[in-house]
Amino acid sequence: MNDRKKRRRRRSGNALVDILNGFLTLLVIGLVVVAGGFIFVASQYYGDGPAPEERVFRVETGSSLSSTATRLEEQGLISNSLIFSQFGSRVEDNTVIRAGDFRIPAGASMAEIFTELTQGNPLRYAVTIPEGWTVWQAIQRINADDRLTGSIDQLPPEGSILPGSYDYTPGDTRQSVLDKMQLAMTQALAEVWETREADLPLESPAEMLILASIVEKETGVASERPQVAAVFVNRLRVGMRLQSDPTIIYGITLGQTTLDRGIRRSEIEERTAYNTYQIDRLPPTPIANPGIDALRAVANPDSHDYLYFVAKGATPSEGHVFAETYADHQRNVAAYRAIAAEAAAQAEADAESARQTLEAEEAEDAPDAQ
């Protein structure tokens, strides 16, 4: 009887061992499978990606991690969107996807792409408005940028845009970019007005803006702006008319085209709102968008007694010569006209020489006349 009990105890003991062995076996197999799965997923995540060449990938504003992963897989930049989103969200510190365009190198791993989209800097895009452009020119450039959305169908007030470069994210609206430009001008105008010369003969920031736009169009030489501004300020102080050619041109074109000819005598003699040869003080609006330096030049012009200026040479980059009296100004004008005539004659001589050279080459190639 004792033998039977011993045999039962041995069988029970063996069964327990078998169960434990089976459990351990399953556990080991499970661990192996899990480890193998982890190794596979990790190798997919950290290994080279499928992209054969460098690509630019766009993340739209408000995109989620899962939707971004799906688009990455659809575009052939990663092999598995689930691994990218689920594994990446567990092993990476930052999981917030940034909006913008990102440069993805050829063969970039999921880990590298994840880091780029969460910590990298999007490609920089900007709309640049040069100093002295009109609002019409500025809106043409904004509307032509196909990375922006929406449209601007109505021109903003002339002079309401501060020239410069304005960053944006692809998909931003054109109106939002314009809003930035106008806010920058509003802020710049207020700041410069607060620093203006005490006895400036201007009654408001709006008048300062108008005069700055005239200064901007009168000279392309940055160092001359305070001098040119002072000439116009001196004229305002003594009650002289500004007599600025760019104001006449703006009255003709309204800033929406270029005047590819000289100003006619009839246009100088015609009394219009923008003809500063005929009206006192300032025109009703700016004639362009002045830059910050032109605003500062008007707010704090040079101290001199010049009332006149004329171009120094045949090219704008040569700047201007200034005079206090009309007699001196006339001499400067005569000198300029001589220089301009000489430059025009030289240009015509060069053109004629080029024509003769071409004619000689054609004659050499032509068959002899019979």
Automatic annotation (TrEMBL):
- Asked whether the UniProt record includes Cell inner membrane among its keywords, one would answer yes
Region annotation Disordered: where it falls in the sequence: 346-370
Q: Which Gene3D superfamilies match?
A: Classic Zinc Finger (3.30.160.60), Endolytic murein transglycosylase (3.30.1490.480)
Q: Where are the transmembrane segments?
A: 20-46
Q: Name one GO molecular function term.
A: lytic endotransglycosylase activity
What Gene Ontology biological process does one annotation of this record name?
Answer: cell wall organization
State the EC number(s).
Answer: 4.2.2.29
> Which keywords does the record carry?
Cell inner membrane, Cell membrane, Cell wall biogenesis/degradation, Lyase, Membrane, Transmembrane, Transmembrane helix
Ranges of biased composition (kind: Acidic residues)? 359-370
How this chain sits in the membrane, per its record, is:
Single-pass membrane protein
What is the catalytic activity of this protein? a peptidoglycan chain = a peptidoglycan chain with N-acetyl-1,6-anhydromuramyl-[peptide] at the reducing end + a peptidoglycan chain with N-acetylglucosamine at the non-reducing end
Judging by the UniProt lineage, the source's domain of life is Bacteria
Q: Which family does it belong to?
A: Belongs to the transglycosylase MltG family.
Per its record, how is this protein called by name?
Endolytic murein transglycosylase
> Which lineage?
Bacteria, Pseudomonadati, Pseudomonadota, Alphaproteobacteria, Hyphomicrobiales
